[in-house]
């Protein structure tokens, strides 16, 4: 009986690089789940290697066996937005539950909606009425102010700041240290460069850099 209970708290992390390490740290600090191991689907030769205080268990070929063994939880911990969304869906289809992982040193207001598979890092502040979709990264010391809407698979990079009522489309990237003025709309898969100051809407699929941020003309 005790083995079954323990397995029900086990978490499989898909990813075995830097982002997986910070996710694993947040899991351990939170104390709610146990790390069963990591998946590296890019470098199959790493199976059995020690990593992040646990072990690399193999590639995607081991996923169904792990689920059958009783591992209930899994998390896609990769930085690439499109890949993270895809892997999250693979895990759901395999029958895993995707937790929301919030570092205990983050501040998340009551009533904030966080989609499954989302990671909120240490030092983040997310304010009331924000709605964060599935498989989002709100990275170290980023801030998301009131009534923001962040689409599935987006990434708010370390030290980026969103004022109130900002809308960020699916799989968009808000670069390190970027600032976004209130009520701005950033389209799906747009990229905001590091340190940019966004004061006008940014169309989907474009890259905007600078102060103020302007869409690059070489696209």
Write structural notes for this entry.
- The protein has 219 residues and is α/β, with parallel strands linked by helices.
- The chain folds into 2 domains: 98 residues, Rossmann fold (3-Layer(aba) Sandwich); 113 residues, 3 Solenoid (UDP N-Acetylglucosamine Acyltransferase, domain 1), CATH 2.160.10.10.
- It is 18% helix and 28% strand.
- The chain has 4 helices and 24 strands.
- The chain has an 8-stranded mixed beta sheet with strand order 6-9-12-15-18-21-23-24, with helices on one face. A 6-stranded parallel beta sheet has the order 7-10-13-16-19-22, with no helix packed on it.
- Helix 2 links the parallel strand 1 and strand 2.
- The longest helix has 13 residues.
- The radius of gyration is 18 Å and the shape is globular.
- The protein starts with a helix and ends with a strand.
Helix content: 10-25%
Strand adjacency order, main sheet: 6-9-12-15-18-21-23-24
Uncertain runs with pLDDT below 50, 5 residues or more? 1-5
| Oligomerization state | single chain
Number of domains: 2
**The CATH H-level homologous superfamily of the largest domain:** Hexapeptide repeat proteins
CATH level 3 topology of the largest domain: UDP N-Acetylglucosamine Acyltransferase, domain 1
Task: Please give the alpha-carbon distance between the first and last residues.
Answer: 59 Å
Give a quick rundown of the structure.
It is built from 4 helices and 24 strands. The protein is of the alpha/beta class and 219 residues long. It is globular.
């Amino acid at each position: 009986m005790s083995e079954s209970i323990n397995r029900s708290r086990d978490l499989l992390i898909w990813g075995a690089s830097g982002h997986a390490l910070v996710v694993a740290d947040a899991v351990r600090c939170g104390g709610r789940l146990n790390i069963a191991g990591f998946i590296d689907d890019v470098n199959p030769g790493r199976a059995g290697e020690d990593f992040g205080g646990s072990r690399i268990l193999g590639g995607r070929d081991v996923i169904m066996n792990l689920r059958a063994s009783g591992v209930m939880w899994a998390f896609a911990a990769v930085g690439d937005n499109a890949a993270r969304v895809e892997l999250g869906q693979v895990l759901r289809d395999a029958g895993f539950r995707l937790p929301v992982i919030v570092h205990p040193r983050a501040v998340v207001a009551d009533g904030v909606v966080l989609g499954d598979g989302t990671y909120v890092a240490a030092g983040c502040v997310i304010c009331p009425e924000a709605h964060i979709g599935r498989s989002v990264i709100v990275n170290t010391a980023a801030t998301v102010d009131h009534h923001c809407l962040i689409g599935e698979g987006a990434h708010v990079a370390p030290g980026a700041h969103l004022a109130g009522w900002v809308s960020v489309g699916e799989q968009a990237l808000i670069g390190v240290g970027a600032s976004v003025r209130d009520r701005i709309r950033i389209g799906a898969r747009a990229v905001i460069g590091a340190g940019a100051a966004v004061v006008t809407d940014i169309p989907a699929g474009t890259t905007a850099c600078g102060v103020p941020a302007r869409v690059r003309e070489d696209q």
